[in-house]
Amino acid sequence: MATINTNAGAMVALQNLNKTNAQLEQTQARINTGLAVASAKDNGGIFAIAQSMRADVAGYAAVGNSIDLAVSTVDVALAGGEAISDLLVEMKEKALAGADTSLDTASRTALNEDFKALRDQVSTIIANAEFNGTNLINNSVASISAIANSDGSNSITILDENLSLGGSIVTVAATASFGTAAAAGTQVTAIEASIDNLNASLARLGTGAKALEIHKTFVGKLSDALEKGIGNLVDADLAKESARLQSLQVKQQLGIQALSIANSAPSSILGYFR
């Protein structure tokens, strides 16, 4: 039936052309963004999974920052503890020399002055072994914690090591000095005990620092694996999209021609009235 009111061929051609244009728009969007799933309307399920994984990646970035902060704090504490250990060794040398009974009073007094200067330096180091307002060796905090997972439910805790003079680790008193050989010998004994205690304390801090670094490495690998997984889910294969783009462009041109042919069909009706 020949009619000018209804052009079925044009309708079909237009439907196919619209479908091609929609596919072409989708392909161009994938090429522009590099994503096969850029929004929930592309694939709701995959988008939701990818967003959840992106949240985990962001969480692990915060974990890395938290660990970096804790590592720096522990490193400063370790540097302070090692400096104190060196000072205790020097203090032992001075006290041991002062314990020599053959030493005259003037020489012992000079050694004692050196001893007290080293003692006071210990307190100075303890007061300044601080990072970001946290000091792990002056008994100002009980511990520090670093976030260990993406939701913050786990943490790595490093305990405080109180290295203050006259404490349980460094037993040498804040007013320690010697005026006699016997007093110097007493200080030698206290310093030796302090060095042993301090070595154990440094070992604990070192173990904590190592644990933080190991966990940071693990978190970095885990974050990389998640990012790779997200890419596998949402990234577009640009080689395929490029080939699809060329195919759709040809299909679009053919669709336009088909619509043009279908639209010209009613004009043939004029031949019936010549």
Q: Classify the helix fraction into a percent range.
A: 55-70%
Rg is 39 Å
* SSE-based structural type: mainly alpha
Proportion of residues in β-strands: 5-15%
The best one-word shape is rod-shaped
Our count of domains comes out at 2
Number of strands: 4
**According to CATH, what is the topology of the largest domain?**
f41 fragment of flagellin, N-terminal domain
Strand order of the largest sheet: 1-2
Straight-line N-to-C gap: 19 Å
At the fourth CATH level, what is the homologous superfamily of the largest domain?
A: f41 fragment of flagellin, N-terminal domain
CATH class of the largest domain: Mainly Alpha
Largest sheet features: 2 strands, antiparallel
Low-confidence stretches: none
Elements, N to C (H/E): HHHEEEEHH
Number of helices: 5
Q: What are its keywords?
A:
f41 fragment of flagellin, N-terminal domain; two-stranded antiparallel sheet; two-stranded antiparallel ribbon; rod-shaped; 2 domains; mainly alpha; 274 residues
Fold and architecture overview:
The chain has 274 residues and is mainly alpha-helical. The chain has helices spanning 8-33, 44-98, 105-128, 181-234, 238-264; strands at residues 130-131, 134-135, 143-147, 155-159. Strands 1-2 form a two-stranded antiparallel sheet. Strands 3-4 form a two-stranded antiparallel ribbon. The longest helix has 55 residues, at 44-98. It is rod-shaped, with a radius of gyration of 39 Å.
